[in-house]
Amino acid sequence: MALQFLINIFVGVIWMFYSGTFNSEYFAVGFFWGMIILFIIRKTFAKSFLGDQLYYVYIYKWIKLVVMFLIELLKADINVLKMMFRKDLDVNPVIFEYPLQVKKNWQITLLANMITLTPGTLTVNVGHDNTILFIHCLDTDDIEGEIEGIKNSFEKAILEVDLDG
Protein backbone atom coordinates (compact mmCIF):
# COMPACT_ATOMS: atom_id res chain seq x y z
CA MET A 1 0.00 0.00 0.00
CA ALA A 2 2.63 2.54 1.03
CA LEU A 3 4.84 1.60 -1.93
CA GLN A 4 1.95 2.24 -4.32
CA PHE A 5 1.36 5.67 -2.82
CA LEU A 6 5.07 6.56 -3.01
CA ILE A 7 5.22 5.48 -6.65
CA ASN A 8 2.17 7.61 -7.37
CA ILE A 9 3.73 10.67 -5.71
CA PHE A 10 6.98 10.03 -7.60
CA VAL A 11 5.13 9.98 -10.93
CA GLY A 12 3.41 13.25 -9.97
CA VAL A 13 6.74 14.91 -9.18
CA ILE A 14 8.33 13.57 -12.38
CA TRP A 15 5.39 14.99 -14.34
CA MET A 16 6.02 18.42 -12.81
CA PHE A 17 9.70 18.25 -13.75
CA TYR A 18 8.89 17.01 -17.24
CA SER A 19 6.38 19.81 -17.85
CA GLY A 20 8.69 22.46 -16.38
CA THR A 21 5.89 23.95 -14.28
CA PHE A 22 6.05 23.43 -10.53
CA ASN A 23 2.53 23.91 -9.20
CA SER A 24 -0.25 21.82 -7.73
CA GLU A 25 -2.24 21.53 -10.95
CA TYR A 26 0.59 19.83 -12.80
CA PHE A 27 1.27 17.62 -9.78
CA ALA A 28 -2.43 16.60 -9.74
CA VAL A 29 -2.28 15.68 -13.43
CA GLY A 30 0.86 13.63 -12.82
CA PHE A 31 -0.71 12.04 -9.77
CA PHE A 32 -3.73 11.05 -11.87
CA TRP A 33 -1.47 9.51 -14.52
CA GLY A 34 0.38 7.72 -11.75
CA MET A 35 -2.88 6.12 -10.63
CA ILE A 36 -3.50 4.92 -14.17
CA ILE A 37 0.06 3.62 -14.49
CA LEU A 38 -0.30 1.74 -11.19
CA PHE A 39 -3.53 0.20 -12.41
CA ILE A 40 -1.92 -0.98 -15.66
CA ILE A 41 1.28 -2.22 -14.04
CA ARG A 42 -0.58 -4.08 -11.32
CA LYS A 43 -2.84 -5.81 -13.84
CA THR A 44 -0.01 -6.94 -16.08
CA PHE A 45 3.04 -8.08 -14.15
CA ALA A 46 3.56 -6.55 -10.71
CA LYS A 47 0.56 -7.89 -8.79
CA SER A 48 2.70 -9.77 -6.28
CA PHE A 49 5.06 -6.80 -5.85
CA LEU A 50 2.39 -4.12 -5.43
CA GLY A 51 -0.29 -6.19 -3.69
CA ASP A 52 -3.72 -7.39 -4.68
CA GLN A 53 -5.59 -4.16 -3.99
CA LEU A 54 -4.79 -0.66 -5.14
CA TYR A 55 -4.40 1.87 -2.36
CA TYR A 56 -7.05 4.21 -3.71
CA VAL A 57 -9.62 1.40 -3.61
CA TYR A 58 -8.64 0.86 0.03
CA ILE A 59 -9.02 4.60 0.76
CA TYR A 60 -12.42 4.56 -0.99
CA LYS A 61 -13.58 1.71 1.27
CA TRP A 62 -12.53 3.65 4.38
CA ILE A 63 -14.33 6.78 3.16
CA LYS A 64 -17.40 4.64 2.43
CA LEU A 65 -17.25 3.23 5.99
CA VAL A 66 -17.05 6.72 7.52
CA VAL A 67 -19.89 8.07 5.37
CA MET A 68 -22.05 5.05 6.17
CA PHE A 69 -21.38 5.57 9.88
CA LEU A 70 -22.29 9.25 9.65
CA ILE A 71 -25.56 8.41 7.87
CA GLU A 72 -26.43 5.79 10.51
CA LEU A 73 -25.49 8.29 13.21
CA LEU A 74 -27.84 10.89 11.74
CA LYS A 75 -30.69 8.37 11.44
CA ALA A 76 -30.20 7.26 15.05
CA ASP A 77 -30.07 10.90 16.21
CA ILE A 78 -33.42 11.57 14.55
CA ASN A 79 -34.97 8.43 16.08
CA VAL A 80 -33.80 9.30 19.59
CA LEU A 81 -34.95 12.90 19.12
CA LYS A 82 -38.42 11.69 18.10
CA MET A 83 -38.44 9.41 21.12
CA MET A 84 -37.58 12.31 23.44
CA PHE A 85 -40.47 14.46 22.24
CA ARG A 86 -43.14 11.80 22.57
CA LYS A 87 -45.78 12.48 25.17
CA ASP A 88 -45.38 9.16 26.85
CA LEU A 89 -41.86 7.81 27.10
CA ASP A 90 -42.82 4.20 26.46
CA VAL A 91 -39.57 2.47 25.64
CA ASN A 92 -38.63 -1.17 25.56
CA PRO A 93 -34.94 -1.37 26.55
CA VAL A 94 -33.22 -4.67 25.99
CA ILE A 95 -29.75 -6.21 26.22
CA PHE A 96 -29.01 -8.84 23.60
CA GLU A 97 -26.11 -10.96 22.39
CA TYR A 98 -24.65 -10.10 19.01
CA PRO A 99 -22.64 -12.90 17.34
CA LEU A 100 -19.50 -11.47 15.75
CA GLN A 101 -18.22 -12.22 12.27
CA VAL A 102 -15.20 -9.97 12.73
CA LYS A 103 -12.26 -11.71 14.40
CA LYS A 104 -9.41 -9.23 14.79
CA ASN A 105 -9.15 -7.06 17.89
CA TRP A 106 -9.11 -3.77 15.93
CA GLN A 107 -12.26 -4.84 14.07
CA ILE A 108 -14.09 -5.75 17.28
CA THR A 109 -13.01 -2.47 18.88
CA LEU A 110 -14.11 -0.44 15.86
CA LEU A 111 -17.49 -2.19 15.72
CA ALA A 112 -18.06 -1.80 19.46
CA ASN A 113 -17.20 1.90 19.30
CA MET A 114 -19.41 2.51 16.26
CA ILE A 115 -22.32 0.85 18.07
CA THR A 116 -21.66 2.85 21.24
CA LEU A 117 -21.33 6.16 19.39
CA THR A 118 -24.68 5.63 17.70
CA PRO A 119 -27.43 7.09 19.94
CA GLY A 120 -29.84 4.52 21.32
CA THR A 121 -27.33 1.67 21.42
CA LEU A 122 -24.45 0.86 23.73
CA THR A 123 -21.89 -1.93 23.71
CA VAL A 124 -21.96 -3.29 27.24
CA ASN A 125 -19.35 -6.02 27.06
CA VAL A 126 -17.35 -8.28 24.78
CA GLY A 127 -17.57 -12.01 25.39
CA HIS A 128 -14.49 -13.66 26.90
CA ASP A 129 -13.70 -15.49 23.65
CA ASN A 130 -14.29 -12.42 21.39
CA THR A 131 -17.21 -14.04 19.56
CA ILE A 132 -20.10 -12.14 21.15
CA LEU A 133 -20.93 -8.50 21.89
CA PHE A 134 -23.49 -7.65 24.52
CA ILE A 135 -25.46 -4.65 23.26
CA HIS A 136 -28.00 -2.49 25.08
CA CYS A 137 -30.67 -1.04 22.83
CA LEU A 138 -32.83 1.78 24.16
CA ASP A 139 -36.03 0.85 22.35
CA THR A 140 -36.68 -2.22 20.23
CA ASP A 141 -39.22 -4.96 19.78
CA ASP A 142 -37.25 -6.71 17.05
CA ILE A 143 -33.90 -8.05 18.30
CA GLU A 144 -33.32 -10.02 15.10
CA GLY A 145 -33.88 -6.86 13.08
CA GLU A 146 -31.28 -5.02 15.19
CA ILE A 147 -28.79 -7.86 14.69
CA GLU A 148 -29.38 -7.88 10.93
CA GLY A 149 -29.09 -4.09 10.80
CA ILE A 150 -25.68 -4.13 12.49
CA LYS A 151 -24.51 -7.10 10.44
CA ASN A 152 -25.52 -5.53 7.11
CA SER A 153 -24.15 -2.07 7.85
CA PHE A 154 -21.30 -1.69 10.33
CA GLU A 155 -19.87 -5.20 10.33
CA LYS A 156 -20.10 -5.64 6.56
CA ALA A 157 -18.27 -2.33 5.98
CA ILE A 158 -15.56 -3.22 8.50
CA LEU A 159 -14.99 -6.57 6.80
CA GLU A 160 -14.65 -4.80 3.42
CA VAL A 161 -11.99 -2.46 4.80
CA ASP A 162 -9.74 -5.26 6.08
CA LEU A 163 -6.65 -5.76 3.91
CA ASP A 164 -6.28 -9.47 4.69
CA GLY A 165 -9.71 -10.47 3.83
TrEMBL record:
Q: Where in the cell is it found?
A: Cell membrane
From which organism does this entry originate? Gemella sanguinis
Database matches in PANTHER family: NA(+)/H(+) ANTIPORTER SUBUNIT E1, NA(+)_H(+) ANTIPORTER SUBUNIT E1
Asked if the record carries the keyword Electron transport, the reply is: no
Q: A Pfam family this protein belongs to?
A: MNHE
Stated family: Belongs to the CPA3 antiporters (TC 2.A.63) subunit E family.
- Record protein name field: Na+/H+ antiporter subunit E
Membrane-spanning residues where? 5-20, 26-42, 54-74
The way it spans or sits in the membrane comes to:
Multi-pass membrane protein
> What keywords are annotated for this sequence in UniProt?
Antiport, Cell membrane, Membrane, Transmembrane, Transmembrane helix, Transport
Taxonomically, the superkingdom here is Bacteria
Against InterPro entries, the record matches this protein to: Cation_antiport_E (IPR002758)
